[in-house]
Amino acid sequence: MLLLPSCLFYQEPSSSLGDVQFDIFPHIVNRKGEYYLEYKVDVSKNKRIISARPVYAKINNNKAYYYFSKSINVTELGELKVRPLELDGFTEYAGKDEVYWLNKDSSEVKLLIVWEK
Length: 117
What we know:
Elements: E1 2-3, E2 22-31, E3 34-41, E4 55-60, E5 63-68, E6 81-84, H1 91-95, E7 99-102, E8 108-110, E9 113-116
Parallel strand pairs: 1-6, 2-9, 5-7
Antiparallel strand pairs: 2-3, 3-6, 4-5, 7-8
């Protein structure tokens, strides 16, 4: 499991969910009252190296957004990414089901919340 740090500066979305193949599509998990963003990029079907895309967070118009910034010169390993929403100040938004993924064309995808027992 890889814990991603919170990004504190703004970057424009540079790719969309449809640009990335996932083993586990981005979603929110509620574990014992705490919320986490989880996803896993599929690297098994590609013959070439995939560059990692850092995830950024922002709040706009009473909604919380995650999005990919530009690829960086680090290889994507295909590990499960787990990011506590608390790091980004998104816990309140998850409680109201107002967490989205922002695509590069400014369209948004509401992230599903899964309640873990």
